[in-house]
UniProtKB/TrEMBL annotation:
It comes from Nitrobacter vulgaris. Belongs to the pantothenate synthetase family. It is found in: Cytoplasm. The reaction proceeds by a bi uni uni bi ping pong mechanism. Keywords: ATP-binding, Cytoplasm, Ligase, Nucleotide-binding, Pantothenate biosynthesis. The active site is at H41 (proton donor). Pathway: Cofactor biosynthesis; (R)-pantothenate biosynthesis; (R)-pantothenate from (R)-pantoate and beta-alanine: step 1/1. Its EC number is 6.3.2.1. This is Pantothenate synthetase.
């Protein structure tokens, strides 16, 4: 049976555990998560183990990145299964604070970002989101003081926002983006996929197939506006309520007019039933 990782829940315990990990000048990689771990998270852990001598995984369902109408209360929480997966992956330490440890009474500080956080993608539909993300991730970086931190590319705008924040605030952590892990039919792995009904799950890979087709058409010289319009129509015809389907510069997230403005990345967000899915691919 794999050895379970050390679990710490308070800041003093975290500091002591990190001191032990660093005793031999170990390099530390942090994988921030909200739990409900799947193969995408484990891909981050495997990359972390290749790049650092010690791996810390945080599990914290962050209330400040959920709007009142969103799914904070029902967000999947699968502690026993998560711990079994992290033991199998040979993670060294799990940082699992409660809300009062992260946001004690009187907490009044927030990290506010511009740049990629105001690109008109997720921020247009979830204006609260990046303030919550940058604040909690900034705290995690300060608490754990990792040499590097790994994030999945599925949350592509979030990856760019976190990288900008870490650089702007001189936090001394290298941000690594790890490619999306997909199901066999192309659906990007997500903790929220468990919400999909059988019928919705069958339709969900439409987002990926539309983006693949759009990327191929753009490479062949098709006009970007037509590619986006056709893709949006296909997504909506499949039963989705579309928030956005856009082509952006892969580094700055600024709008592009053609493949010549690249590198180009297609990004999509859409709801099917009550479940909101996001995805992206490079061209």
């Amino acid at each position: 049976m794999p050895t379970a990782p050390i679990v710490v829940r308070t800041l003093p315990s975290l500091r002591r555990a990190l001191e032990r990990l660093r005793a031999r000048r170990a390099t530390i990689a942090l994988v921030p998560t909200m739990g409900a771990l799947h193969e995408g998270h484990l891909a981050l852990v495997r990359q972390a183990k290749r790049r650092a001598s010690k791996v810390v995984v945080s599990i914290f369902v962050n209330p400040t990145q959920f709007a009142p109408h969103e799914d904070f209360g029902s967000y999947p929480r699968t502690w026993k299964a998560d711990m079994a997966k992290l033991a199998e992956a040979k993670v060294d330490l799990v940082w699992h604070p409660d809300v009062s440890a992260m946001y004690p009474q009187g907490f009044a500080t927030r990290i506010s970002t511009e740049g990629p956080a105001m690109a008109g993608l997720e921020d247009r539909f979830r204006p609260h989101f990046f303030g919550g993300v940058t604040t909690v991730v900034g705290k995690l970086f300060i608490q754990c003081r990792p040499d590097l931190a790994l994030f999945g590319q599925k949350d592509y705008q979030q990856l760019k926002v976190v990288a900008r924040m870490a650089a702007d605030l001189n936090l001394g952590v290298k941000i690594i983006g790890v490619p999306i892990v997909r199901e066999r039919d192309g659906l990007a792995m997500s903790s929220r996929n468990v919400y999909l009904s059988i019928e919705q799950r069958a339709v969900a890979p439409t987002l990926y197939s539309v983006m693949k087709d759009a990327a191929e058409r753009l490479r062949k010289g098709n006009h970007l506006e037509a590619v986006l319009a056709d893709g949006a129509r296909t997504i909506e015809d499949a039963g989705f309520s579309l928030d956005y389907f856009e082509a952006r510069h892969a580094e700055t997230l600024s709008p592009v007019r053609s493949i010549k403005d690249g590198p180009v990345r297609f990004l999509v967000a859409a709801k099917i039933g009550a479940t909101r899915l996001i995805d992206n691919i490079g061209v």
